[in-house]
Amino acid sequence: MLWTTLLALTALVEAAPQLKRQGTTTMLRFGCAQVVIDRLDPLVNPGLVPSPHVHQIVGGNGFNASMTTGDVSNGASCTTCAFSDDFSNYWTANLYFKARNGSYKRVQQLGAARQFNDDFSTKIGGGILVYYVSAQPGKITAFKPGFRMLVGNPNSRTADPAMKRQNCFRCYTGPNFGGDVSAPCQDAKIDTQSLPSQPCKGGIRSNIHFPTCWDGKNLDSPDHKSHVAYPTSGPATFLTLGGNCPSTHPVRIPQLMYEVVWDTTPFNDKNEWPTDGSQPFYFSYGDNTGYGQHADYVFGWKGDALQKGMDASGCMGAKCKDMKTQTIDNAKKCSVKTTVNENHDGWIAKLPGVEMPMNM
Question: Could you tell me which PANTHER family the record lists for this protein (predicted)?
């Protein structure tokens, strides 16, 4: 199926008439403001302070270095997300610009495409867009309390064909998100597995897709990946219509996707780029290829709130029937105190963790 645009949710539904007829299409698409920037990773490095690299975290204020088991919604009192029952935590590595003199500066995040025109798209500065999609045939089972997973490998530095629909970057060709057409990670002409090699006039967008099949038993696994899987046809496409789950992972779970818009526009002066013309952006774990892009997820919706959304038909965007929402101003009041004392906004000599020891 061809998607003409993601810039209008109503147009997206019209582009999938068979889904509309089935009455089973739901796409919760909402922003979460930043809850903290910190060098913690309770999924991969539980209890370790600091973790090896810096992350940007959104969601519930229960986030901490040791949130390794149990229902995290019980330890949170507020959330930065549009749905006020969503105390989950979503995080990715930070992106940095490396100047020709060798110093680094963190790249700020923007909201999503302004054409969506809702506060949790355009006013989450520093946050992440989150998608939960229920568009596959059959029942979609929401995640259970204690569920968590990881996608991507921070140690990857070469292209992996199996990842092209899982992780991708889009170079906005003009201001105001110019060139944002077609579904993410589907168009090889505009989506790449590597970080863009040229200045992007409107910034860079990251999209990260999680697996859509679960073994139905384990809430986690030693590698944080083995308890989930992609359909037998391979990594799920956005709003996939098919693809059977493997017999080892028979339970269909929501299609979870993160979208991060990096404001690289202050760094588009090629005179500041490396003299050899190579691209100057590095993730916080020292990767300037982009192939190591990864993301972490810890489920924390209250009660059956997410299941209600997945069972509802026709929900699109940051509102869905009787699901509770909050204002962006209230969401931005939610925060977590930083544990590791580091410079997140100024110029720094080395990447924290990778090259620079921590300050406590």
Answer: DUF1996 DOMAIN-CONTAINING PROTEIN, PTHR43662
